[in-house]
Amino acid sequence: MNTPSDLKYTKDHEWVKIEGDTLTVGITDFAQGELGDIVYVEVDSLDETLDSEAVFGTVEAVKTVSDLFMPVTGEIIEFNEILEEEPEKVNDDPYGEGWMIKIKVTDSTDFDSLLNADDYNSLIGV
Question: What structural domains does the chain harbor?
Fold first, then answer.
């Protein structure tokens, strides 16, 4: 199980890379493993400002569809368009080419709710 220590995590199994007031977001290695083969990623909230915990899209695997949740309040400024043609990137490289969205943060106090790698590993029982 890969849980990079330089990232933050949510209880909804998403990872967050903080770069100033821009965040890159994807699902964790644990989440992609639980979902299985990912066949479709949908983000229909590009250029929208959403509250923390709001649904920003869905990820569809062979056997299930799961909602994707905003880790913080902010505006979705970019969607990883590679995933339209190659959704399997989420399985192959969840922390790299499998990223999903970029968010411009509007409320940095939301960072307080994010987990570090050790806390996330405790959450998933590693």
Answer: 8-108 (2.40.50.100)
